[in-house]
Amino acid sequence: MAYTPLAADPAAPPVRINLLSDTQTRPTPAMREVMARAEVGDEQLGMDPTVNALCARAAALLGKEAAVFMPSGTMCNVAAELTHCRPGDEILAHETAHILTSEGGAHAALGGFQILPLTGERGQFSAATLEAALREPSRYAPRQALVSAEQTANIGGGTMWPRAELAAVARAASAAGLATHLDGARLMNASVASGVAASDIAAGWDSVWLDFTKGLGAPLGAVLAGSRPFIDEVWRWKQRLGGAMRQAGLCAAACLYALDHHVERLADDHALARKLAAGLSQIPGFEVQTPDTNLVFFDVAGAGLMAPHLIAGLRRHGILLGALGGRVRACTHLDIDEAMIDETLDTIRALARRA
Ligand SMILES: *Cc1c(COP(=O)(O)O)cnc(C)c1O
C-alpha cells in the first residue's frame, strides 16, 4: 500500500506551524555557514578532520572510549544490535521501543534477532521487570544478548527515566551477562531537563548514541559511542550497511555547531511543551500527559474527537501535528515559538468547540 504522508497533501495550505516532529527543523543560516566552511576529507578512510573532531567530542560527551559518525539514528541502533548479537539472539526492549515499532523490522530482517517486548508505564520498564524476563540458559530458549532502552522514551511521552532506575536496569542486565544499549535519540533533552551530564546518564551502558536531527536541529547525522573494540566492530557493519561516507564533514560541522549552540536552548522547547500541555489540559474531555521534555501526547476521544480528524482540521489551518500510538503528538523544537503555541491552542480550542 502506498503511503502518502498528510504533511505532503498538495490540496492543503502550506505548513506554517510544524509540530509534527523535532526532526522538522531546517538548518539555521549560521549552521549553513559553518557547513559551507567545513574542512572535509574521506570519512570512510578516517580522513575527514571535522568528522574526527565530532567523534572525539561525542565520545567525551558520552563518557565512552570511541565514537563513530552515522547517517541516522536508525543505523546506530541497527549497527549496535548487529555488533552485540548473533542470529537467533533475543533483545529485551520496551514494547513501544523504536527498534520494535519503527525500524521496518531491521532486527529480524538483517540480524535474525527477536525482540522480547517488556511492559511498563511511560515507555519504561523496571529492573525487576527485566529480571523477571530473564530466561534460564538452555538450548531450548533463545540466547538473550542485549537490553535496549530509550532515554528519553519517545512513545512513552518523551519521558525521562529516573537516573537510579536506568542505572539499575544496566546493572541487572550486565549481572546476567547481557550487553546494554542506550537509544539516545533525545539524550540531550534528558540531560538538559534533569541537569545530569550525558556521560553520567550513559554510565554503565555498553553502547549509547545521540541524534543530531531531533531537537539539536542538524540536517543529518548521529553518533554511536562505546569501547574501542566495540566501535571497531561497528565500523565493519557501517561498511556493510553502506553507511561509510565520504566528505561527511559538511554534516559533522552542523552537528558540532548544534553541540555548541543548540543544547542549552532545549530548555526553551521543554517550557513551550509544558505551556502547550497546560493549555490542552483545560479543554474539556482532553487527556494530556504532563511532558517531561519536548513531546506532548494527548488523547481527544473524551471530547468526542478522533485524532485523525483533529489532525486533518489543524492541517487545513497550516498546523501540522501527528498521531503516534493512538494519541496525538506535538513536538516542540528550534522552529517553534510561543506565538505558534498560542495560535495552535486557539485553533484546537475552536475545533474542539465545534465537535
Ligand atoms: C527518531 C528516533 C530514532 C531513529 O532516528 P533516525 O535518525 O530518525 O533514524 C530511534 N529511536 C528513537 C527513540 C527515536 O525517536
What does this structure look like?
The chain is of the alpha/beta class and 355 residues long. The protein folds into two domains: 29-261, 3-Layer(aba) Sandwich (Aspartate Aminotransferase, domain 2); 265-354, Aspartate Aminotransferase, domain 1 (Alpha-Beta Complex). It contains 14 helices and 13 strands. The protein has helices at 29-37, 49-62, 73-84, 98-101, 106-111, 127-133, 163-175, 187-194, 198-201, 228-241, 249-261, 266-281, 307-315, 338-354, and strands at 17-18, 66-70, 90-94, 114-118, 144-150, 179-184, 207-211, 222-226, 287-288, 295-299, 319-320, 322-324, 327-331. The strands form three sheets. A seven-stranded mixed beta sheet has the order 2-8-7-6-5-3-4, with helices on both faces. It has a four-stranded antiparallel beta sheet with strand order 9-10-13-12, covered by helices on one side. A two-stranded parallel sheet has the order 1-11. Helix 7 (163-175) links the parallel strand 5 (144-150) and strand 6 (179-184). Helix 3 (73-84) crosses helix 10, helix 6 packs parallel to helix 7 (163-175) and helix 12 packs parallel to helix 14. The model has no long low-confidence stretch (mean pLDDT 96). It binds pyridoxal-5'-phosphate (PLP). Residues 72-74, 77, 98, 150, 154, 183, 185, 211, 213, 222 line the site of pyridoxal-5'-phosphate.
